[in-house]
Amino acid sequence: MIGTSARRVGGVERVTGRQRFTGDVRLAGMLHVKLVTLDCARARIAAVDTGAASGVPGVRAILTAADLPRPIPRYGPTYRDRPVLAVGETKFHGEPVAAVVAETEEAAEEAAGLVRVACEELPAVLTVASALDPSAPLVQDPELRPDDLLGRTNIRREWHFGWGDVAAAGADCVVDEVYTFPMVTHFAIEPHAFIAAPDRDGLIIWSSIQHPYLLQAAIAEVVGLPLSKVRVFAPDPGGAFGGKQHAKFEPLLAFLALRTGRPVRLALTLEETFQAVRRSAFEIRVRSGFRSDGTIAFHDTECNALMGAYADIAPRVIAKSGYLICGPYRVPDARIVVRALLSHTTPATAFRGFGTPQVAWAIESQMDEAARRLGVDRLEIRLKNLARRGDEVVPGDRPADGDWAEAVSRAAAAIGWGSPLALGRGRGIAVAIKASATTGASYAIVRLHHDGSVTVMAGTSDMGQGARTVLAQVAGQELGVPLERIAIVMGDTGSVPFDLQTSASRSTVFMGTAVLNACREVRRQLAEIARELFGLAEGEVVVEPGIVRAPGLELRYEELLAQAWGPVRGELIGTGVRRGEHVPAHPLGGPPAFYEFNCTAVELEVDRETGEMLVLRHVSVADVGRALNPAHVEVQDEGAAVMGLGHTLMEHLLLDEHGRIRNLGALDYRIPTTKDLPLELRSLLVENGDGPGPYGAKGAGEGGLLAVAPAVASAVAEATGAVIRDLPLTPERVWQAVEALGRGGRPDPPAA
């Protein structure tokens, strides 16, 4: 069963519309919520007048900060800095000042429009430069940051990583450049939706959340309940990409449910979802030294990331990506300064790739620039510096765990690297490495029923990545049960065991191992039953998938259980665990369980007169250890590649002088459509069985977008001679770069 492309569990329901998402849930007596926001990023709130709104028929409550406990409850996965409602002033465009609760969505919307907020717009911090400016207004009150030496700045955290001595490192070629990566949004098909309902002396929450157990903990803390009194239902999300990892408006819904004594529902529009989640914007300066043969001498990097008004999980994103900013290379000396900057913008959260696309954009572009200056082939400069298995990419940390050069060579061969190119065409290649989960805990329960069927209970979320299928395949492999006789139960903290999170490409490795261990515990119990039933010795019973063997004996599981239990019946329950413990001395709290490595290669054609480009071939090669379901891995990689093309070619959030997002919604914010896809898109897998997960698997699903931007930019440079260091590579930006070179015919191609 392992290594076969089994059909996706729940796939038919997804494509036929039968699957129930959080937005489809309706409860008896449910009220509807609409948020009241201001038309600017930052404003001082003088008064909130709810008189007219309260008179709308059907309105049952209007909540403002004045109605909340004191001090105002705050929440957040890294810092408890986000208030349930804006206090004193708004911090970003879309932050709610009040919430209206009514019998219908229409009444709630009408009343929200009648709430009058007396306010004064204030200057906002919207850029990296302004966030670093000592004279800029503070985004957060220093009283929220006691004992923080940076508390009177907009630097929320600053990290210093590195090794060796950059100042003493010599180099034949020094490349010193600045790269920018803008804000982009997740654009999941399913907008965010939340329901909260009182439940005797507790609360029930429905949410399109990736981490139901972390949400349970956040709600319990903010309303002062024990974990046992908060139950979270998390139906499979309709896409998440990191945007649904942590609490957004669930704490507000919890207070509204307690206030009204009824279920309350908030479903964000797509435009409101844009205002709720985004990726961190990065500005990265890299000074790199190279020897004449192309080997890296040093990287000296300064990374400033604009994370928004509240921390959410962005400090973790920024620190983790900065720690591995030097990429999958052997770098003798490195200095790394990383800052998480506060701004009056939408709070940044996790996004597929967890900061790696931003830092890979800078480092891989540096590799290309060095190749051009030294006259070294862009492929060769990467192969020359790439870490080999066992090499340490960060001294003292987990060494390279794959044959990464194999992936690079396969990508180059698949793209026809080195073969002649037509006029206006170019090829590019880039690599990237992402650290997987460093800590975590996954628990699984496997129930073998008396008829030989199986129920797997796991806290992982299936947001389209196919976790249900892979976990069923692991159970089927271990217990010899076909997939149609296996049920997977997820998404309910009241029934499934703890799982810390569904992120970092960790589900197969962490939860897959927990399920495997639970299955093997079931097999141990089967062996014990057989020994007791037939009076056999320890070594005489062998339990294989689906079969129990002993001298002169071969029984299917259900046959053995029938003989052992008779008409009373029963079931076997196996529990399994996979943990990654916190390591206080490690800069990230622990070494990565594995590295997710990817090589992306593209061939494209650029119209010099318009700046438009056509991606002819796109090849993504992932080092996955073992593909438990090859089709799932391939389509995950392809989906990531298309997402990577989005932030490379077109996606970026635009702010006006008031801090308002100008391109809210699907009409003004472009994502790739079928007309933007490469003419040829291939996903190749390197399988050496060298991962820590079941059967040698590593995680997959993020790698395909990590190196897309530098690969495409490299191809554009070869096709046009124009080197661009700011994303996205829109036709206008490409055309402007080409025009800047002059119009004296096609420029000489880069040396490499």
* CATH C-level class of the largest domain: Alpha Beta
In total, the number of strands is 28
The biggest beta sheet reads:
7 strands, mixed
Roughly what percent helix? 25-40%
The number of distinct structural domains comes to 3
Our measurement of the CA-to-CA distance between the termini, rounded to an integer number of angstroms, reads: 45 Å
How many helical stretches? 17
Mean pLDDT over the full residue set: 95
The CATH topology name of the largest domain reads Aldehyde Oxidoreductase, domain 4
Spatial sequence of strands, sheet with the most strands: 3-7-1-14-11-12-13
Shape: globular
Content of β-strand = 25-35%
**CATH homologous superfamily title of the largest domain:** Aldehyde oxidase/xanthine dehydrogenase, molybdopterin binding domain
Description:
The chain has 752 residues and is an alpha+beta fold. The protein folds into 3 domains: 11-122 and 192-267, Aldehyde oxidase/xanthine dehydrogenase, a/b hammerhead (Aldehyde Oxidoreductase, domain 3); 353-436 and 594-740, Aldehyde Oxidoreductase, domain 4 (2-Layer Sandwich), CATH 3.30.365.10; 440-497 and 504-580, Aldehyde oxidase/xanthine dehydrogenase, molybdopterin binding domain (Aldehyde Oxidoreductase, domain 4), CATH 3.30.365.10. 26% of the residues lie in helices and 25% in strands. The chain has 17 helices and 28 strands. The strands form 7 sheets. Strands 3-7-1-14-11-12-13 form a 7-stranded mixed sheet, with helices on both faces. It has a 5-stranded mixed sheet with strand order 9-17-16-15-10. β12 (202-207), α5 (212-223) and β13 (230-233) form a beta-alpha-beta unit. The longest helix has 28 residues, at 507-534. The protein is globular, with a radius of gyration of 27 Å.
